[in-house]
Amino acid sequence: MASLVVVQHKQPSSAVFQSSFSDFSGARLTASVQYKRKLWQPKGALRVIASSAKKILIMGGTRFIGVFLSRLLVKEGHQVTLFTRGKAPITQQLPGESDVDFSYFSSKILHLKGDRKDFEFVKSSLSAEGFDVVYDINGREAVEVEPILDALPNLEQYIYCSSAGVYLKTDYLPHFEVDAVDPKSRHKGKLETECLLESRGVNYTSLRPVYIYGPLNYNPVEEWFFHRLKAGRPIPIPNSGMQVTQLGHVKDLARAFVQVLGNEKASKQIFNISGEKYVTFDGLAKACAKAAGFPEPEIIHYNPKEFDFGKKKPFPFRDQHFFTSIEKAKSVLGWKPEFNLVEGLADSYNLDFGRGTFRKEADFETDDIILGKSLVLQS
Known about the structure:
Blueprint: E1 4-6, H1 27-40, E2 55-59, H2 65-75, E3 79-84, H3 99-108, E4 110-113, H4 119-129, E5 133-136, H5 146-151, E6 157-161, H6 188-199, E7 204-209, E8 211-213, H7 222-230, E9 235-238, E10 244-245, E11 247-249, H8 250-260, E12 269-273, E13 279-280, H9 281-292, E14 299-302, H10 327-333, H11 341-351, H12 365-378
Parallel strand pairs: 2-3, 2-5, 3-4, 5-6, 6-7, 7-12, 8-11, 9-14
Antiparallel strand pairs: 1-4, 10-13
Helix pairs in contact: 2-8, 7-9, 9-11
């Protein structure tokens, strides 16, 4: 039986993450949000103010995006509940987060323990609590969303984390929000969720990130490059390395999530959210090196068709041009990324990998296959 509880703050030990980087916990971001609210308020772009505190449910919230989002929402004065299975700590002090900030956040955050795939429990527990707003960070299938909507008929807003992966592959880029989508993509569940929200007449907002990066990233995006740079290894990149892609910092994404809350201009709208500029695969490898203070790496290009990697994935990005326009979010919401790519990668490295923390151990098996063949060809 799940319960709604206040997660009590425990004094952090001296071994818990300490840092001089004061922006990890959202302090820097919060200051920025407050400044921009004042700047844009006459335009009606933001309606999130302390006096409009909401009772907010975040589906997920302890791994990556939600860690930053929940802190911003608490600082805004909202009552925030995380719905998780309880397998990970609900709060943990983060690098650069002061004891005072962590204590405040921990004293405010609430937890509802349960499995979102237990639909009957979701209906009963959510209807009993009642929430004004739902942030769905980890929803993958429409069937997982229906019980939430059924439980909360008076829901003010459903804010969904979708993916730019729903777009149909095309020769005409960047992707805009009105572009064709691919009903067969591996993100089809997110596309079906957007359709469900529209068909149910819900006041929803859906954000479509491209590749997300930043501290605590559990996907091997920047971490893949950092492992190789630290080991002093060449970086194998498929084909020409001139494929163009796009990355967005998790803190910029968290700010976007806050800015759509209660925003009439975000009602029943979809927004691409990512970085300002695009980058080639080769350029990304060099940017990671620059951000982390490593020498410019040796890059090895290879033809993936010449190798059999089995089920191993030799490169963490799709081997194609893949990027979006973020102009709609900039013009409608007044949002824009604060991090350029090198700054954002430095933030990620200094507050995570550079401290010896990462999600996946280095695995150079496919690299060695590629490099072995390259050496034979060179000789």
